[in-house]
What we know:
Elements: E1 3-7, E2 16-19, E3 31-36, E4 39-49, E5 65-66, H1 74-87, H2 91-97, H3 130-138, E6 146-152, H4 158-171, E7 175-179, H5 187-196, E8 202-205, H6 211-222, E9 228-231, E10 243-249, H7 266-277, E11 280-285, H8 290-297, E12 302-306, E13 318-323, H9 335-347, E14 350-354, E15 363-365, E16 383-385, E17 390-392, E18 399-401, E19 415-417, H10 421-431, E20 437-440, H11 448-459, E21 465-468, E22 481-486, H12 500-512, E23 523-528, H13 534-540, H14 544-558, E24 565-573, H15 576-587, H16 590-594, E25 598-600, E26 604-611, E27 614-623, H17 626-641, E28 650-655
Parallel strand pairs: 6-11, 6-12, 7-9, 7-10, 8-9, 10-11, 13-23, 14-21, 14-22, 20-21, 22-23
Antiparallel strand pairs: 1-2, 1-4, 3-4, 3-5, 15-19, 16-17, 17-18, 24-27, 24-28, 25-27, 26-27
Bound molecules: adenosine-5'-diphosphate (ADP) and zinc ion (ZN) (2 copies).
Residues 126-129, 132, 152, 154-160, 310-311, 477 line the site of adenosine-5'-diphosphate.
Amino acid sequence: MPVIRVALDLPLHRLFDYRCEAAGSGDIGYRVRVPFGRFERIGVIVEVSETSEWPDEQLKPAGEILRDLPPLPETFFALCRFAAHYYQAPLGEVILQALPSGLKRIDPPQRRQGRTPHPVPAIARPDLTAEQAAVLSALDTASGFATHLLFGVTGSGKTEVYLRLIEQVLERGQQVLLLVPEINLTPQLEERVRGRFPEAGVVALHSELADAARERNWRAAVAGEAAIILGTRLSTFTPLPRLGMIIVDEEHDASFKQQDGMRYSARDIAVFRASQLNIPILLGSATPSLESWSNARHGRYRLLTMAGRANPQATLPTVKVLDTRRMALREGVSPLLVEGIKARLARGEQSLVFLNRRGYAPVLCCPACGWVSSCRRCAANLVLHMADKRLRCHHCGYENRVPRACPTCGNQDIHPFGRGTQRVESWLQEEFPDARIIRVDRDSVKSRRQWEAVLEQIHGGEADILVGTQMLAKGHDFPRLTLVGVLGADAALFAADWRAPERLFAQLMQVAGRAGRAELRGEVLIQTQYPDHPLFAAVASHDYPGFAAMQLAEREQAGFPPYSFQAVLRAEAPAMADAMAFLTSAAAAPCVCAQDQVMAYDPVPMKMARLANLERGQLLVESMSRPALQKFLPLWREAIEAIKAPSRLRWHIEVDPLEF
Length: 660
Ligand code: ADP
Ligand code: ZN
Ligand code: ZN
């Protein structure tokens, strides 16, 4: 009797066999209901065979095969197998995470007819700038696999390049996958694409869509009805029968990295997918990741450059580095920035104050006894939020009311220490009582819809001053914005994390890029106590290549990625001793010692050693050879699985980790 081999969403590195009389080889790729334990589950048929390694009487009969969708194609399985192998993730998890939740439910919800999208006004196609034209003539979308890196300064018109490429691919009757960072996928972008391609069928795939809408869009994409798929990282695996090109906007963005479950890089998966299908892929950014930049330097990626702004009247903003050591700051704001904002208010222009820290103050302290507000569940401070008078942990969500007096010594004179966006906002409001101030951070803007509303307010000229975190930094065009002030950037200069400068540089370039996007010239003021730091000099001269060369030289010296390849094993348990003992056993696995091409560091507590009452440790492994690391990881994972660990210990492996 035929046996089907089924992928299930379980943390186990194996498939599950079931008897299935009705199955034939044409059923590979269909979903199937199968009994598992006391329940039924939905799985995906990966193989059909006449035999099983299990004795017949142990095989349970499968339930119904669901043929309501075309079967998942072999290319989809190949992509999942690659990801499972590369990231040491169970194949079943990889396959099932790619499906919308409605398709994995035993009792699928009633499918309702979706709203037909309202007609959007057609959007005209501008003449290309010389740089855009040059890029497009250098990129042949019909020529098979190649990874192109589009390095285009902020405002250079990368979006128009994407739209023209999409046009070419659609003309050939193919589909396009346009991947964007989480926050950039707004209905505005969707409307813009719809407006240019009213006939094409455009669908969005992102985490904030309701289940039914996501399933509907997914089905349209999989059936080939939608030609343009606009998605965040979760759309990377969507099977697309006629995929002709992939575009990744803001390819350096950290939101392309999945931070739980299978910890994958959507950008890297996208590059593999393009190579698998022999189609071109374009990665775009004003500040490419150093990995991609280095790939371009070494000829693995093709570099395309746009160095000027698309709007001929717009110029790159002037960047001034303000030495705050000899300035009288008020609430962290320098007199020059105050003057700058005043001048903008007088001219009816907008200013943006960037501070990448939300809340009122990062901690509350007692000067008498040294008490600080700390989270009882994490190795972190509780952040003071004045709006609702709460102390909040930004890591585990624990919160408490603000005490009236010091809980240790009773002193009533306790102080907020340091500042976040709320504090700067309230001070600016006192300083400029008539100004309309909008604060933008994850406390004030919690959903895509709120974000939409805020963007509309800003565009409608209903704001004079914006105060916000990196939410404000990305990809938005605010034509009346002419001043950007940067506060609190110094912390990242000397962070223990060696990727911090790369992130800071990208953030500063992005936020600076908000200024002067139209005719009005922009000015950027960066406050710092380290005015001579080369990072600021590079920002001031808009010199990404110079900055990248500097960083890559340091990394080469230190043997960090992209000059080496890393994976990290993390363990968390109620007691640090258990986590460390586990990591120590993992470090002592025979395959670690047998490998001279892979080096294991000592296990250490993580930078945030406690999170939500769990102690966390990690063990880094590194190799100068990607193949050696890839050969080592499955052996190591098996050895780790064999370690006897306390029942409450959890562990995972992350390949190419971005944060430690
Ligand atoms: P980027 O994504 O590279 O930062 P955008 O795609 O947002 O830049 O474009 C910046 C601005 O330039 C936008 O206002 C856009 O409408 C305008 N723009 C882009 N291409 C052209 C063009 N060919 N002609 C005129 N304006 C353009
Ligand atoms: Zn005290
Ligand atoms: Zn906490």
